[in-house]
Specification:
CATH architecture of the largest domain: 2-Layer Sandwich
Number of helices: 15
Shape: elongated
Number of domains: 4
Strand order of the largest sheet: 15-14-18-19-21-20
Radius of gyration: 29 Å
Helix content: 25-40%
Number of strands: 24
Largest sheet: 6 strands, mixed
Strand content: 15-25%
CATH class of the largest domain: Alpha Beta
Length: 483
């Protein structure tokens, strides 16, 4: 992606400022490799502090008057020993950042623009030392502890969602590459014109003014409403994948589909596809035969939303849904954000807060951290085997099972069902009992012995504990170990 689609517009914009700011600097023709390196560090760090996508070091414009005088420098061909200056500079900077050198002519006067992208995870150092701009003066960062503290706070707040997916777009580009009508309807509940939608997206932070007469589309906008995710390099490998297998193994795939559109604008369609692909059985309801899905729609909805929202966007991999005979598996890159056995009661957390916020605003996922709870309640209501939450190779995996028969459940299924049921009851401030567990497992009143065996097995591994250590068997109550 070219950092400067319209360098002339950028220069006009920067020259219109009454004075240099902390994120751009005008110079003439003096070449000093160390001084340039220090300025790159200072400008990159100041751009991060001021929430700018780029900083600029410009040669050929006079400081103060902002008059275009031109420069004799040719940084692209400048060498340090046998090494090109660009390569040398890249080695001297830590962490490695994107620094591009652009050349432009204004009235036959040569201008060199060093375009600097900040480091979003820690301050930029040149030869091991971090610099910063104080007003228009370059200083060592360690001399200004308040700025250093603010910079670390700024880098810790950065998210992948704020990165730029496409630069210097006009209204036609936005119409061409984004499903803006669908997104504005989801977010604002009404039809907007393209101009109104763009204004709203700018206010939302989905589009950014590039200071060159165009707009930058963020990764978040691409993830939310791209017509084709594959058109944007930064999110191309984040399109969800749906694989349907012939049997109970992954040896033969019946269907393998890659998602095309952004998450928000395609969520409802993908949900309907998953519900349908999961199968079901015909039931007579109010005199009409209707298909009852194998898996509760609310559970599919919450697990799908979690796979999208909680994925690690900088990790290799993408959300994947696999449908086997008898189970549906949701996998997303990124280890679980909480301990596996605490997913039901854990407070809401997300790696991608802005994506989560958009999903909530569009009413596609829960307002609170109750999505997993709702999913497990729905599965309990169908007497199905409990979902399995796991971590595998740095990914989070959630498996739903079609089994809805106590006799067909494994011992592990029954124990997990007991623990999850106790956890849900605890959220209601109520203990689990033999009777409540029987109802959850689809057992009759006469099958209290089977429920007691499951409770004993769950007690043995320490997942639940008696509400009262001196309680009798007849009125025994239980809570999860963490209650």
């Amino acid at each position: 992606m070219k950092s400067l689609p319209d360098p002339l517009a950028l220069l006009e914009h920067l020259r219109s400022h009454p004075a240099e700011t902390e994120w751009f600097e005008f110079k003439l023709s003096r070449f000093d490799q160390d001084e340039i390196g220090e300025y790159v560090s200072a400008l990159a760090n100041s751009a991060m502090l001021h929430q700018k996508g780029h900083a600029y070091l410009i040669f050929g414009i006079e400081d103060g008057s902002h008059e275009v005088l031109g420069t004799s420098l040719r940084l692209k061909t400048q060498k340090i020993g046998q090494d090109l200056f660009e390569h040398w500079l890249s080695r001297m900077l830590s962490p490695s950042i994107n620094v591009q050198i652009e050349e432009v002519e204004i009235d036959d006067k040569h201008i060199e623009i060093v375009c600097i992208e900040p480091a979003y995870y820690r301050p930029v150092r040149f030869k091991g030392i971090a610099y910063v701009r104080v007003n228009s003066v370059k200083k060592r960062l360690d001399e200004y502890p308040e700025k250093e503290r603010s910079l670390w706070m700024a880098t810790s707040r950065y998210s992948y969602e704020e990165g730029v997916a496409a630069s210097h777009l006009n209204n036609e580009d936005i119409d061409k590459h984004f499903l803006w009508k669908e997104l504005s309807n989801l977010l604002y509940g009404r039809d907007l014109s393209l101009e109104q939608a763009i204004e709203a997206f700018v206010a939302e932070g989905l589009l950014l003014d590039d200071q060159q007469g165009g707009l930058d589309a963020t990764n978040l906008l691409a993830l939310a409403a791209a017509r084709r995710l594959q058109d944007f390099k930064s999110v191309a490998n984040k399109a969800p994948r749906l694989i349907t297998y012939v049997g109970n193994t992954n040896s033969t795939a019946k269907e393998d589909v890659d998602g095309q559109h952004g998450y928000l604008v395609t969520f409802q369609r993908l949900l309907k596809l998953l519900v349908k692909s999961g199968g079901g059985k015909e039931e007579l309801r109010h005199g009409i035969m209707r298909l009852k899905p194998t898996y509760p729609e609310v559970a599919i909805r919450e697990f799908l939303a979690n796979a999208l929202v909680h994925q690690d966007l900088v990790a290799i991999g993408r959300p994947t849904i696999e449908i086997f005979k008898g189970r549906m598996v949701f996998t997303n890159p990124g280890s679980p954000l909480v301990e596996i056995d605490r997913v039901i009661d854990a407070p809401a957390r997300s790696r991608n807060e802005r994506l989560a916020g958009l999903m909530r605003k569009a009413k596609l996922c829960e307002l609170r951290g109750s999505g997993i709870d709702r999913a497990v309640w729905a599965i309990e209501g169908e007497k199905q085997a409990p979902p399995l939450f796991a971590e595998a190779d740095g990914s989070t995996v959630v498996t739903m099972f079609a089994t809805a028969n106590f006799g067909a459940m494994s011992k592990d299924d029954r124990v997990r069902a007991c623990y999850q049921h106790a956890s849900l009851k605890a959220l209601e401030n109520a203990p689990m009992s033999n009777a409540s567990l029987r109802e959850r497992l689809g057992l009759t009143k006469n099958q209290h012995a089977q429920a007691s065996n499951v409770i004993s097995d769950t007690l043995a591994i320490g997942w639940i504990k008696p509400l009262d250590m001196d309680q009798g068997n007849r009125n025994a109550r239980y809570v999860p170990y963490w209650a």
